[in-house]
Amino acid sequence: MKILDRYIAFSILRTSLAALVICTLLIIAVNMFSSMNNYVTNSVDLMTILYLAVLGTPEYLMMASSVSFLFGTTFFLSQLESNNEMIMLLNAGISYRRVCGTVMIMTLIVTLLFSLFSETVLIDASVEHDRLSRELFGQSSTQDSRDISLSDLEGRYIINASYYEESSQRLFDVNVIEVDDNHSLTRRLEASYADYEDGNWVLNEGRIYEVLDDATVSASFFDSCDADELTLQPSMFRNQSRNISTMAISDALDYLSRMKVIDKEVWYSVQTDFYSRLFSPLAIFTLVFISLLMNYRFKKNVFLFSIIQSLCTAVVYYVCEMVVTIMCSQAIIAPIFSVIIPNVSILVLSLIIRLIGSGNA
Question: In whole angstroms, what separates CA 282 from the centre of its chain?
Answer without folding.
Answer: 12
